[in-house]
User: Fold this.
Amino acid sequence: MRYRQLPGTPLQVSEIGFGVWTVSTSWWGVKEESVRERLLKRALEMGINFFDTADTYGNGEGESVLTRFLKAQREKMVIATKFGYDFYHHTRQEGHEELPQDFSPKYIRFALEESLKRLATDRIDLYQLHNCRIDAIQRDDTFAELEKLKKEGKIRAFGVALGPAIAPRQAEEGRAAIEKRRVNTVQIIYNLLEQMLGEPVFAPARRLESGVLVRVPHASGLLDGTVTRETVFGKEDHRYHRVSSAERKRLWQEEGLKKVEQLGFLTEKTGRTLSQAALKFILREPSITSVFPNIYNEKLLEEFAAAPDTLDLTDTEFDRVQVLVAHNFGLAPASAG
Assistant:
């Protein structure tokens, strides 16, 4: 495993992190307690020390699961969690629609104390606004409160996680968070197939020394071999909306796999799998601090954890990928990625 510095702190975090949503929500299917325990413990053994969760994952389960299995290892871990969705006073009615958000100082302090209890710790290493919009980033009282919490030692750094899905507005949000709020990190969805938020966020992050965290690095399964043409998603799976009609299925699943078929050059005589090449593609960017692939079995965990030590992409490989992306892999009309 290789490590990079979490900006604004002395902390070294693993290039491959663990997105705890896969073992704490019903969106990905890892429900067995024994599997959750094995994955978390094995990840730490393999050098993954950066765990990204949120208070709303499983209504607190995303934090509690770390305490159940890794409490004795707290000093070896760097914990990032998120706040903003008020699941304490509201419940989801159906599907995966968003809950009301609250970024007021009073709610931030309340949510933080609840997270500290669930995590059985006295500080959060990275505290992130969860899927915030520009209005939250523009709130002076929100960031004044976060600065207070840093001075009190309750958090070591703060950032924003943009979402829930990729949207053009997030380029503005990412820039504002870095340039106006000087956040330690911005978390985005970014991968070889979905690069909308790349340079608009990378450029200010490089200039002002913020870090970028990346989730969904395998395009929701297209780049790690877990999605095939035969894959069917249940309504409980967050990817269901991408294939909820024949046209959506064509644009995302079928065209996405046609793109993947053109990436064989990334694995030929390189010793890396496509999923590892997809991670190396992201880690090539110097402003990126860590990547959170979706880990839901031991095979994927071991494959992802080994990725940093595989061959770096050559300039020729990288440029060839970008030519394909620029021309939509020769597919028309342009797909949803």
